[in-house]
Amino acid sequence: MKRAKFKLDKGEKNKRAFKKIVASGEVPGIIAYADGEPVGWCALAPRENYPLLENSRVLARIDSEPVWSVPCFFVAKPYRGKGVTGQLAKAAVAYARQQGARIIEGYPVEPKKGRMPDPFVYTGLISTFQSAGFVEALRRSETRPIMRYSIGSRKRP
Question: Cα(67)–Cα(78) distance, rounded to whole angstroms?
């Protein structure tokens, strides 16, 4: 969904649109559970499913390789800071691998100093991706690296 439409449809319209995606059978991401209750989610799909990435100067494609992307996370407030995002990143790699992906990308932030407020780290932190086995592949911005996890390759970018 394009950013302008997302902003325009904020709230109930976006909830309905998301429910429609789920009902269609499309897998829009991975859900984390604690005691049977959903506590977190990460978006995951082939990169071309995310027009915002495709049109970004900072997060533009590195090469022509087909990649799956992990563009954002959501973790319920009581579960933040407890490793849920890292587990979601690892689960995203496992799921993408099952779907035949060879490269998974993430687009975290790396704060210049100190802790950033939660609303600004919805793309994840560089440390989360590093702990899940991703390595920095390219950086066009001081605070926005492109991280990659390569499946079936001895060397990662």
Answer: 32
Residue 70 near residue 108, CB atoms below 8 Å: no
Total residue count of the chain as it appears in this document: 157
Q: List CB contacts of 41: < 8 A, sequence separation 6 or more.
A: 29, 30, 31, 32, 73, 74, 88
- Per-residue pLDDT tens over the stretch 41-89: 999 999 999 988 988 999 999 999 999 999 999 999 999 999 999 999 9
List pLDDT tens digits, range 24-35. Answer: 777 779 999 999
| Residue 36 near residue 60, CB atoms below 8 Å | no
CA distances for 145 relative to 14, 27, 120, angstroms: 28, 26, 15
Give the residue among 124, 131, 148 at the shortest CA–CA distance from 42.
124
For residues 145 and 110, the answer to whether their CB atoms sit within 8 Å is yes
**Local structure of 20: helix, strand or coil:** helix
